[in-house]
């Protein structure tokens, strides 16, 4: 079995830097990608995260998003010779509007996987009407009442649930209480599609902003759990993964619980070797290039 992972860009967002990493450069605007991940080469194609439903939704937060045609699900699937109904599973790391908005593009015959705890969060109003939108939540509820359209994961940190051979989900927490990681077995170790426990690798993991303790990650500025829960989620991911694939930054190579390399030109690039360590730029060189 040779599973391949392709990070695909499903839009861009302009926002204040301090909204990503707590207290980092307030007032400075940065642009981040919305990322999904295609997993191919197994018994069925899988998409992890589906991007936003509508770029205009971010205006309510004072942010500007864009989603041109070349950053749509249809466009990326076509590059790999696929259509929406070819996917057997779509997995959601969590249900925030920038991750779950494309679900209604898939037929009910496609099974969507999400943590039961995350669905509870989406319907609870825990983060107001913005991060979990009415349309996205309603679509999940519609799937809940349609045979085989929704799979609810009950991972709680004590076990993982297999989706297909070589792909499993693990409870992550940290960003939201119901966040999950998608773990992909590769010849060189686990590739961890980790959602939003990390927004910015440089300022959270490589040179942590405002943290001075050894190997201590900096937290994000957007979470519904405690600071300790987020730090714990980050450390667990670093301890158990060879490749870490966050939802808004470049993939990184991990060794000994620390980031040692970054994969340049990884987004929407079918030639990117995400699961091969040799393709990653060593950390010292990546930082020198301004990564």
Could you tell me how far the N terminus lies from the C terminus, measured between alpha carbons in angstroms?
33 Å
- The helix fraction, in percent, is 10-25%
Strand order of the largest sheet: 8-9-10-11-12-13-14-15
Rg, Å, rounded: 18 Å
CATH topology: Metallo-beta-lactamase, Chain A
Helix vs. strand class:
alpha+beta
Q: What portion of residues belong to β-strands?
A: 25-35%
CATH class value: Alpha Beta
The whole-number mean of residue pLDDT values reads 94
Poorly predicted ranges (pLDDT <50, ≥5 residues)?
none
Number of domains: 1
CATH homologous superfamily assignment: Ribonuclease Z/Hydroxyacylglutathione hydrolase-like
Identify the overall geometry: globular
Count every beta strand, where a strand is a DSSP E run of 2 or more residues. 15
Number of discrete helical segments: 8
Describe the sheet with the most strands.
Answer: 8 strands, mixed
Query: What is the name of the CATH architecture?
Result: 4-Layer Sandwich
- Order of helices and strands, N to C? EEEEHEHEHHHEEEEEHHEEEEH
Keywords: Hydrolase, Metal-binding, Zinc
InterPro entries: MBL_superfamily_lactonases (IPR051013), Metallo-B-lactamas (IPR001279), RibonucZ/Hydroxyglut_hydro (IPR036866)
Protein name: N-acyl homoserine lactonase family protein
Family: Belongs to the metallo-beta-lactamase superfamily.
